[in-house]
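User: Can you help me understand a structure? I only have the sequence.
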Amino acid sequence: MNGADDPRADEHSRSDSGEHNRGDGENRTPDHTGPNRRTLLKALGVAGIGAGPLVGVASGAGTTDETAADIGGPTAGTAATLAAASGPLDRATAEADFSVGPVAGRETECFRPDQGFELYGPTDINAQSGNQGLSVGLSDAGTVTVFRWPRPSFYDQIKYFTLGRDADGDIQTYPNVGAFLGLAVETDGSVELPGGGSTDATGGTTTTWLRDWASEQRYGHDLADDVVTSYRSDELGLSVVVTDVVAREKDALVRRVHVERDADSPVTGGKLVAFENFNLVVSKHPQYPTQDWCEESKNTDRARYDGALDAVIHTKSGVDESTGEPRSVAVAMGLGSASDAHQVGGDAYEPAATPAGEGGPTQDAYDDAADGELRGNDLFEGQTTGALSVPLGFEGDSATEHVVFAASEDAAGAGTILDGTRERLDSGGFEAINEAKRAWFDELLADAPLPNTDDESITKLAKRALVTLVTDYDPSNGAIVASIATQSPYGEDWPRDGAYFNYALDLIGLHDWVGKRGRWYADIQQTATDPRPSHPNTPPGNWVMNYYGDGIAGGPIPYEIDETGYGIWTMWDHYAVTGEKGYLEGVYPAIRRAADYLVECKDPDSGLQCRAFEDDHFTQLTQTIVGASTVWLGLKSAKKAARVLGHDADADRYEARQHELGRAIDEHLYDRQDGDGGEGAYGTREDRAFRFAMSEVVWPVCFTPYTDPETDELMDRPQVDNPLDHPRIQSHLTTDYHEAATAFAEPEAGNRDAGLYQAKALIPLAKARRSGDPGSLAQVREGVEWIAKRHATPDTHVMGEVWKVFEENGEREVRSIVSQPHAWEQVLFYLASLEAYPPAGVDFESRTCGSVLEALREGACRGPPVDVTGNGEPPTDPDGDCEYEDVDGDGQTDVVDVQALFANREDRAMHEHAAAFDFNDDGRLDVVDVQKLFTEVS
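Assistant: Let's start by predicting it. Here is the structure, written out as tokens:
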């Protein structure tokens, strides 16, 4: 959290075509929220914070404060263009006003401190589809804007860079970025087209891009990720529905295009035109995640048309600089039916690449497609584009076609996936692919608890949070990205956010996923004996800001002390839910390293934690309640882990330091006169000036004050068993509620223009205030409803990290911006919705830190929902201990189950649900579990 930049920039949601113009009004009361978390990566790279040894960490000395204004933003020409233009920019405008400056590519345009929250440009994602390998983002007009492969935290393979917003707030891009669809139509006479221009009156074809049509978007199912975008052109008398889904089994995006023609339509014939601008990437920078968005001009590949496959295939190979290992990628675009024309060209709108694709045989496929007649060039190397067309085979007034994008390590692999997908389309149709995907989500999420409310906006957002969470998961090691977005560059795993993800995954019963994530965190922790080369400046026992899925450091901040506390907590918390002692023993060395660091890292004068990087605040080392409370939580968790495992000397050290820190928190970090509606709150006024709720102090930290509730005298130990019984915690909650309530009063109140993380405040309020004001359960429910109906997108029900007020014709409207879908914001909402609307039948203890969420987690067994032995019967859990001794599902536990476990112990289906058969609690499924089960049944 950083308040250096003015958050009142005029920003709001977009349309590819500039169709939905929403003007902004004047700024109102300054909102001190500051820019979004996890910002300023470009500035850090320029300042050099992410490289070399870190000076001053051990002693707690401050670092030089590098202000955002020193880094540089868009040129005056860029700003002038954005003010005047609407929609994608033509090439002449781009060349004249979007010069790249002295650095090749777009690096000078990537970091924009004058843009408020959108420091890297607006996020152009309204929907997402993925399979934990390929992850695709779509704009609200159906353009593919993100194409991450091979896993969510790796490289974005498509060129799509948002330049900013125009005066009306519409997102600006070059016109040929992303992948999108059009119709090359023949009409009876000249007809005006959506977005401008008209058809050819002489009988030729003219291409109209669907992004220019009036459109609506939604998900096809609340608990799945098929995206339905509907288009309508009254001028042409055509309706088009495009359904996008990433297949479950293979890394293929399948686009079903269905066209309906009115009886009186002037369209006499036409073609489907599919365009793409892939920009392949095989390398990433440690601690500087810019390679696949702001350095697109440097990413060249080889594109060719393969006649035998009838596809445009892009290929690239090289060495990943972060690992020194070879990497390769291939992406193929093909149609469901045989194409009638193709074009492989150069990018005519890339300043660093022109004039390669401006004309001649290698003309940019986007420009070439304008008349629906593609030139047929077969090969281009550099900044590449491609297009295919196919006649629409109308049967009566209906026509259906498919477009497939397949990704693999090489051309042969991509071709195999493409052909296999075509065969599936021929045999079972698109619905077979879609139903298989929906069945996968049903297997994972059908038993997940949901808020008990009839308000569809709340349940839709809660379900979308779960879908995003499981699709952002990397099954190879458990990494979960904050967002698949590249603007902002959030495609990494933050241990801070990951602790909340783990809590939710354990709640819905995906214990084996959390176990894998905990072991991964333990493995990537910095150590003194085996330092990780991608972040040598990280102190042993800590984690870097965030990580790519292979454990390479993603962001530039070398460590954050609150993430250290969260890292300990989440590793302990998984054991607290599952009781898997073998798991705890496996991660305890990491817990010990982190806790030992926290014991030593203290302020000798105050007893607080040492000054450190906290909560992505990179400009200086700080010492706030954010770090203090999470360090206290980490020490408390380490103490518990040590006691369980019999390491009493460790436990004594951690407990002593925990209480020393707790006394210091009460003495130095409690503001008795907060001034925001409460009598006092944890966190200095400077901490709270950015209008963030500091609710993590109450949950998940559950800080128990060290002052006597009656006399306010400082004591050696916590003074109440239940933190919610202490007046300081109640006062802190009151302050947090009043902060959150100012958000829920918008846009009508006109006092705030932006905010974020309000759901974080609602979770502890729901636990503590089920009756009585302020922040009663009724008021919490009003807040949950506000988030679902105001912050989230109204059509696809996803949330960005930030909400912002925009103005059109004098009307103020709240819209979601920054890295949507944002996994942490959505998970916080999911947890808040469960506390606010407890699922039917859950027996919970009110007014405690545990409350609804802990009651749900205590009953969260995740067994195999389907047959894992091949006999047609799913295993059962006869004694309700979350271990499935009845392996063959016949209702009895006997030696036959031992034999079934032994015979199938290497199968993938068994290992996908390893926790259900981990009878010796060592975190693995192996022959030892067979022996343990044999002992039990004997």
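Now, to help you interpret it: The radius of gyration is 28 Å. The chain has a mean pLDDT of 86. Let me know which part you'd like to focus on.
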